[in-house]
Amino acid sequence: MTSAPTRTEAPAAGSSGDVMSTARRLRLVLVLGSLTAIGPLTIDMYLPALPEIAVDLHTTSAAVQLTLTGTLAGLAVGQLLIGPLSDAVGRRKPLLAGVALHIVASVLCVLAPSIGVIGVLRVLQGLGVAAASVVAMAVVRDLFDGAAFARLFSRLMLVVGVAPVLAPTLGSGLLRWSDWRGVFIALAAFGLILITVAAFGLPETLPPAARQRGGVLATARVYGSLLRDRTFVGLVLVTGLAMAALFAYVSGSSFVFQEQYGLDEQQFGIAFGAGAIGLIAATQLNVRLLNRYSPQRILIAALGLGTVAGLVLTAFAVTDFGGLPAVLASLWVVLFAAGLAMPNAPALALSRHGESAGTAAAMLGAVQFGVGALSAPLVGALGTGVVAMAVVVAGGMIAAVAVLFVVVRPAQLGDLAPSAVTVAAH
Questions:
Q1: Most buried residue among 21, 130, 149, 151 by CB atoms closer than 10 A?
Q2: Whole-angstrom Cα distance, residue 361 to residue 340?
Q3: Is 162 helix (H, G, I), strand (E, B) or coil?
């Protein structure tokens, strides 16, 4: 196997975080939590405004959905670039540059004259968000290990779960006194607060002696070694396909619930939040399930449940049997299943490449958002209605099951170390 880029060991790994006072650790959690939250807020906060944007800019629903794809594409590419970059030059510079890019893109979205311009700017927003996400997780790795790492990581994952619940509700609240441009003003303001907090409250956590050496070619060789691991690639694809089912719901829900079923912006925020609560509940249940079952078994059961629920959702959508309550109930089960599947597939994947965990995590994140980005235009191409959304949701789950059994082959997976499961599942 090709060796990883040369890297000297950081002195006393994890010791910096271990000796922190309670006040400093709380401050760190708040800073990193804010960095982690900007991604879900950027993705989801403008969802209630999608129909309004289509009308105001005289464009189609499918074109508006492509702006979501742009954000996810920026996130995917950004993680591949910024992960290795932060290992080479330190954490602060990529972070501050990324958040600054997000602020500028958000301000320009307020002034955007067309949907095409917004689409380009949303890609730039995604690149900026990627810097915040990657650096937040990298800082945790720099400062903590073992049980301390798992506890702090679990708190950040809770932020990742809660932020999508709050984002559409916040967006709906803004739309009560502003138009869709007010959402981007709010994102720019949050970015300004975040860059100030990061500049003064987050010191550099990767000393020069611990930075990665070897340049672009060495990094490319590590990516190549990951791509040659069939099981790793399969698990990454499973994660991405589950994410595609999730983002099919995210991209289509505002049009389905508001235009097809007649919910207003505030009612949409409540309905969307209910689904996100199901996903969060599943991730927390997963921690308890891992005390009794292997991640392989949970992953298989979760994808099976999601596939059945996706097919039931499609049947309800095609026949209109049960109306909106039936659609919401089956969607909730799909999201619950995704919440069980998505922690376990990455845990199994990352456990295979501890020597290059940062690069493996970057690839995992890129594929998650890259494959997820494909689902939004697919829903738009099929008509943006409940049938289109249901078909793509079910298709993502079916494809994930197929990859799991054909490419990954669960019987060949070895046992996963309990510490890896704990970290990834929280």
A1: 130
A2: 19
A3: helix
What Rg, from alpha-carbon coordinates, does the chain have? 21
| Nearest in space to 252 (alpha carbons), one of 229, 224, 275, 232 | 275
The DSSP line for 55-116 is: HHTT--HHHHHHHHHHHHHHHHHHHHHHHHHHHHH-SHHHHHHHHHHHHHHHHHHHH--SHH
Structure tokens given for 78 = 């950004």
Residue tagged 């997963």 (tokens): 286
The whole model's pTM is what?
Answer: 0.73
Residue 7's Cα: distance from chain center in Å?
A: 28
Contact 177, 62 (CB under 8 A): no
CA distance 177 to 174: 6
Q: Which of 76, 67, 62 is nearest to 372 (CA)?
A: 76
Q: Is the dihedral of CA 352, 357, 150, 193 positive or negative?
A: negative
Query: What is the rounded CA–CA span in Å between residue 287 and residue 295?
Result: 10
Please check the confidence at residue 269 and state whether its pLDDT lies above 50. Answer: yes
405-422 confidence digits (pLDDT tens) = 999 888 777 544 444 444
The candidate with the shortest Cα–Cα distance to 396, out of 364, 373, 365, is 373
